Amino acid sequence: MSPPPPRGPSNGRSSLRIVPLGGLGEIGMNCMALEQGDDVVLVDCGVTFPTTDLGIDTYHPRFDYVIGHKDRVRAVVLTHGHEDHIGGLPYLLAHLDEDVPVYGPAHALELVKGRLAEHGYGDDEVELIPVAPRKTYEAGSFSFEPIRVTHSIVDAVALAFRTSAGIVVHTGDFKLDPTPPDGELTDEARLAELGDEGVSLLLSDSTNVDSPGRSTSELSVGHALEEIVTRAKTRVIIGMFASNVQRLSMLAKVAVATRRRLCLLGRSVQTHVRAAEIVGRLRFPSDLLVPPEHLGSMPRDRVLIIASGTQAERMSALVRLAAGTHPLLRLDPGDVVVLSSRIIPGNDRPVFEMMGDFLRMGIDLKTGLTDRGVHASGHAHREEQTRMIELCRPRSFVPVHGTLHHLVRHAALAREVGVSDVLVAENGEVVEIGARAALAKAARVTVGKVATYAGDELPDEVIRERAQLGRSGVAMVSLVLDRRGTVAAPPRVVQRGVVDQEEGASEVMRAAALAVSRAISEADGRTRSSDEGVTEVVRLAARRVIEAKTGRRPIVVVALSRV
What we know:
By secondary structure, this protein is α/β, with parallel strands linked by helices. It has 16 helices and 26 strands.
């Protein structure tokens, strides 16, 4: 763990420090700390997902900075319920005192309850405080006000912090949808009022800075999907991000209008529907839903299926449908599958492989590539990003939520709109701003990613070994020594993933075994009397031979017995 960054003379009561721990210089894993005086408040705590298969479920940010300041953390404040904003929360709370409250919209907190329960937290073990737009909340020396924004999930907010450096607006993820299905528009009037009052710093979502114009309205997606379902004469399967409750609500209405029953296929979509129902964000007619177990007996033209797994996640509903291995449903040629989603960067290959599987089955496949209207992004395009800057009229600007490319492009946009004090920072780069001072990078803190599987954190060494196993394989040496340290039986070396059996694996392993015997006989008595000494000599001897004969450097595991 690295020590907390030094608190220089400029870090007084009139100075605010912005500490990005995730989400700046990358897509996802959003987490940011605000620090002033003796108080720290965290905005969001998300995860990101692996692009390689090393047995990792998610990555969350490294919390070295937070752990070093945990006695000063006054609150965690959430902007909305997407996993890249809330998924890391259970891991963070494990490092904090139990009395640190978590503020957020009711829908986000309901999803958080499920995540906490998965990690063994009791119902009242963490204080979860629901927030409402245009109301003010206190966290140490900070006060903050949620501001309604539209996004691809219900109950999303921006945050206006009143700090020692003035008003700081964090947009969270947002868009300026003029016709959101739930009628809850981004509160441009309140943003403009804050702009009139004077915004010292705007932290704004950069995700879609390369997309010109305005984003597509979610309502138009509902119309496009309704047209597809209305025309279909067979099953329709809509693959979508399970968190998009507004789209789920529209599809329920489409099912009613087309006299179809609705089926939810996949754990994540069922989880999100349950959370939205609990907080009153979703209401289905009592007879609309049909259990997945009944799908096989339903007429093909009387069912509308909502399925999760649009990113081709292993064992997801869509992947199993495409492979023909789903235990409850087998698709037929002519069935309609709509991928009402985008491909998250890094997932291109598995998603296109899944699409290919559907096409080979004779499925009528519709995606954003063939039918552009079937999906709308939840993030602002350039025109909306410009509008956000014009509403807030900030003195200073820091782009957030994006790769370095996105941040640099958004910074340039802010300068074009007339903001002169603009700074691009990545994870770990501490930004300082005073009541009248310009932005400046004040320090650097330790950041990074922590891999997790089944709720447990995986050490970096485990991940490195898994990667090496994938690259070079493993050789296992079985060795028996007597009490004098002499080889009691011929060593045996076997391998997996180093060399193909037909390429002379047996010859290579026999050569490695001979090298092991020779290395033991040449070792001094002190080495042979030590298990650790013998293991290291054997490991190096076997690897040298294998590398010389194959060009590969496998992990070598030594099983040593003494008789």
